[in-house]
Design brief:
4-stranded antiparallel beta sheet; homotrimer; Rieske Iron-sulfur Protein; globular; 2 domains; Naphthalene 1,2-dioxygenase Alpha Subunit, Chain A, domain 1
Chain lengths: ~350, ~350, ~350
């Protein structure tokens, strides 16, 4: 096990995969610096262990599943979900070294993993996502592998000014960066929001207005309320209402709204898994609409990738160059501060547990 | 010349290439950390020199052959097989620095090279391969570049348990890892063997039984006798006999047998050239059978590559994690010990030769 | 800003791009270790600034042009040609940190940049290229990215012996490396030349003879006069004249001649941009001939790339191995010496400017 990393919280639930990724084969994926082998047991329950066979170091995720165990594809060691070998042909595995097992739960349409100390996970559970439990809501999404620090994506999402530039052809519009931005702390979360009144809807929202049975050409009030919560989640309430009816607080029949869902899961210090999607409170059974929105988001969010990966390369090149922290950057700045404090607290706790 | 490496024997004959690779053009290949340029002289004899032109450092293997010399493709320096420049337009090459020449012999259908001290090669020759000199035997083979320490391939071949898992669709079968394995030292070699009695032949051996005119559905006795010899060779006697006729010692008419030929030649500390093939004592003139077996082996052995390359990456990530040394691993463990002792002896000899 | 590099002159004009590369989009290119964003202002004038947005470190060259400014594609910061931010939505940019701007001029069909201290560029200008100002001359060329130290290309061009080997099928011929080579210093330049008399023209020059209306089968006198000037330019006067009429000094009607134009611009210590072309004093309006020569040069010069990139890899592997400095190498040796002296002088000047 390597030294505690400095840029992510270890003791927390991260989205590791989507349920459809765990089929009748194991899945190898590195989360927070830990190569993990994910698999389902005979009852379909998801598990994760180190992706390292205690026999000869083969990758367990290249193996196969048998009777609910993960069988190494090299010499047949069968690994249980607790990191203990449960069998191997002609061998007594009782004294084989144990490998790490990581707490895993499947909830709200995601596979969640806890990369830190397993004991610390006891009694905790992944965040509740109200829309995931509500039959009046629908969700569609996907994920990307991004070669940048996951915090650059948090910065990105906590400052939607970039939509005007990066997403000029879809959700961006000039009014975004002209609208004042407001940031505040809400418990252990960061909220940054923008409201625009009496504007024309950009292409993406015109489609949403049509989908909600409203006039796509009408003037609208638009809002963006970004909420960061640790370890790396950003939920963005977004929507438009026919102008002059209260905006965010307008009656449901006069608005189209949804939640942009973003889970950033570190892979290494300079790469992450970006799980993105949209939850919407209208037309939940319209699967064609779900597919259409997902395709739209995939196209829009892929525009961020080139920008962030080039930014990451630039920052690695100039590690000591200070960046500006403008008012529009406050969301990201506060989010990073919350992460930093939690990481520091974990490191102090780790040191205290070690014999001196 | 770099410091003596720690993981391979320098003063030994390694397979460097197959004869058909040395045509009317030179061949560049790194062996035991040394970039070499191989070429044939006017009489067709194979040679190897450093792949570094003493004039300006160009790669000699990018040049061409003329009058039995290797001519640098940059400015025309002609290199002789002893590492001395033999000519260059308008230049007197007598005092040009000499580059290293490596002892090379062509024997038994392979080009062999001695990457260590040339004087130490005098009076030695590559191992005798009896089947290569016997007209009643046929050989077919090929080679792979593998991104792993060559010793991981030796481990692999000295523990055929893996066939049950890695090669489940061809030569693997459940009975292999259920059969007891026996390992012993035989002079400077390691022998590890398994015998299975009264089993059904797996697909590869069914084909061999057919090829030998025997009933592919009959019960058979099967054997695998792996023999490691330094610096990195593993010969495996394999075969099946109709059950109850003595197995390995059964009359020739009642069995199909062959030798799996494996030469592992280090390229770097974490990569090697893997020359593989099969020598068989039946139907030596059946070229279609030779091609069929070669194609089969190529498919089977390529299954090992992904496993070994992932294992290598895992081991680099966890350099201090001890691996298990089970009874099935004894063949590899003893083989590595032989290599380690030989390497240590070479290093002591090198230090003693140095003044001071 | 990194420490002064040791292998290139900083305070000098380098070719950075061709004018057609600067269109309505910015261009990102690293020159002498400095990532630069090139762009044209509203009047079409070329500029270069650091490729690093002072807001969050995004690459400015991924942005777009608006009103003569370079607008960052992430959050809309508008950068002026002097490295000062000129605007950003809802922000006061007056106190934003300035980034470096590099002196740029467009002249003689090239975009030139000065990667060193901007003040030192004042009053200087790129070298005059007489042929570029003469309507009786035509130019055609292109460029390559080469993974080698730019000085290996200078060596290459200052010793045309290599043509016999690398370009055997086009401009190379046996007589080149049989002809004596003469090298001398001419002010701050190095001149190395070869003259061949009464020879048959090689394929490229047969084409040129035809193009000039001369007998391609006649015996010719041939010359190659290579002239290096710092920081990394090599102009080569080349030509053939009908034999016995004075060679280089023969009447214009009896010869075909041209100038091989080579600008080497470092990217990193082990890579460079190679701008190559040919200026000719005949048939200046024959665009088909220009295209034909350019295609021929592209093919010929691409043959050098594999040689130089392999040479670079060999030299990195053997950093302490001395290379030969033969008479044919004198051109490169003297050119490197001029560069080394200029680099040393720059470093002394830099140290003296620093408070101490």
């Amino acid at each position: 096990m390597s030294a505690p990393p400095s840029s992510w919280i270890r003791n927390a639930w991260y989205v590791a995969a989507t349920p459809d990724e765990l089929t009748d084969k194991p899945l190898g994926r590195q989360i927070c610096g830990e190569p993990m082998a994910f698999f389902r047991d005979a009852a379909g329950q998801a598990h994760a262990v180190e992706d390292f066979c205690p026999h000869r170091g083969a990758r367990l995720s290249l193996g196969f599943l048998r009777d609910g165990h993960l069988v190494c594809g090299y010499h047949g060691l069968a690994m249980g979900c607790d990191g203990r070998a449960v069998g191997m042909p002609s061998q007594n595995v009782e004294r084989f070294p144990r490998i790490r097992a990581f707490p895993v739960v499947e909830r709200h349409g995601f596979i969640w993993v806890w990369p830190g100390d397993a004991e610390a996970a006891q009694g905790t559970e992944p965040p509740r996502l109200a829309w995931a439990e509500d039959p009046n809501w629908a969700y569609g999404g996907g994920f990307f592998h991004v070669r940048s620090d996951y915090r650059l994506m948090i910065d990105n999402l906590m400052d939607l000014t970039h939509e005007t530039y990066v997403h000029a052809g879809s959700i961006g519009q000039k009014e975004i960066d002209e609208a004042p931005v407001e940031t505040h702390l809400d418990g252990g979360e960061v909220v940054t929001s923008r409201r625009m009144t009496g504007i024309h809807a950009p292409p993406f929202w015109r489609m949403a207005l049509r989908g909600a049975g409203l006039d796509e050409n009408a003037l609208v009030d638009r809002w963006q309320i970004c909420r960061f919560s640790p370890p790396g989640h950003v939920m963005i309430e977004v929507g438009v209402a026919l102008a002059g009816h209260g905006g965010y607080d307008a009656p449901a029949a006069l608005k189209a709204s949804s939640i942009v869902v973003d889970f950033m899961t570190p892979e290494t210090e300079t790469s992450h898994w970006y799980f993105w999607g949209m939850a919407r409170g209208f037309a939940p059974d319209d699967e064609a609409l779900t597919a259409s929105i997902r395709d739209g988001q995939r196209g829009i969010f892929s525009e961020d990738l080139a920008v962030l990966e080039a930014q990451q390369a630039n920052l690695l090149r100039h590690p000591d160059r200070g960046l500006l922290k403008l008012n529009i950057d406050a969301g990201g700045v506060h989010s990073r501060r919350i992460i930093e404090r939690a990481v520091a607290a974990e490191q102090i706790a780790t040191r205290e547990r070690r014999p001196g």
